[in-house]
Design a protein that fits this description.
The protein has 403 residues and is of the alpha+beta class. The protein is 33% helix and 31% strand. Among the domains are: 57-65 and 311-396, conserved putative lor/sdh protein from methanococcus maripaludis s2 fold (Beta Barrel), CATH 2.40.420; 89-194, Helix Hairpins (Orthogonal Bundle).
Length: 403
Amino acid sequence: MVDQNNQKARRRFAPRRYLRLIALLIAGAVVAQGIAGRVHQEADLQQWTATQAIPTVSVVLPDTSANGQALTLPGRLAANYDAPIYARVSGYLKNWNVDIGAHVKKGQVLAEIETPDLDAQYSQAQAELANAVAADQLAGTTAGRWKEMLESDSVSQQAVDEKTGDWQVKQASVASARANVARLQALESYRVIAAPFDGIVTERRTDIGDLVNAGSGEGQALFRVADEQKLRVYVDVPQNYASAIGARIRATLTVPERPGESFVAQYLSTASAIDSASGTVTIELMCDNADGKLIPGAYTQVHLTLGSTASPTMRLPSSTLILGHQGEEVATVASNGQVTMKKVTIARDLGAEVEISAGISASDRVVDNPPDSLADGDTVRIASHAGSRLAAAKTAGGPHAQS
């Protein structure tokens, strides 16, 4: 009877044991799953932390173009020929024939001057010449007669020599008087003021009846004539570009009064000397102005493309430079993402860019705006947009691939 009751009790509690066992198994599975999840999350966190610790950088390729450096500098325009016209003789202005803006030809009469004083001097010189010629003729006749009398011993040799010497003096007087007449005759021709070359009258500073003084020291210029068919352009180029100045310079001009238009200029010469006050060297360009669109004396913007220097250089943005203990350096990135610091030699500082003459190659990927903590041997990740632009730059042959 007791065994039966025990059997009945065991049969009654058996399902409960199974349920407890199942519950324990489920709880163990849940705990194991939670532990595994936390381990996986911790591994992911460590991997994410390690990934975030690798800096992301933008890179650029050196600019290897050899077309020269482009500059924009202020310049000044000047006429090919520009001459103030002064009076060569004194007097009163009789008339003027041209005004400002008139186109004149070489030798064309601009004005005439009345010269009463010069006319009187010229008349006096002609009279003195006639007197000298008459005296010369008389002295020559006298000297000839005295030579004839010397043959008959009627006069002494001394007397003949004196008459011959007097004749020579009279001959010299004639030559002097004739030269004076020629001088005054030349001055008489200056009563007419003529244009020295083809050009345009840019100034007229006289009027009828004005007292005119000869020369540039005492009087002002009566006219100014300029040849504007061609214009000279003077540009002051900074000293650090002096080595690139030469016939290979290409230049275009722009002026504010003609927006959207440009004018081609040709290199003419250089001063070949640095102005100690400004640190610049002056170059001279020549621009064709047959259409008259440019005005002498005007301000112009000169866009220069300088010839390349003898040694090949590459350009990088100034933001790529690192000032280290060894001098100027740049950080380059290898294909495996490892950073290599390279010392560079700067040929010229162009402001936003620098020219590098040594230290890098054209294929180097240079870090732009490198972090201060970046060091040789570090691993970096290139920004995706920078990488795509690098590929596009290589395909298109472009120099820069900045982010």
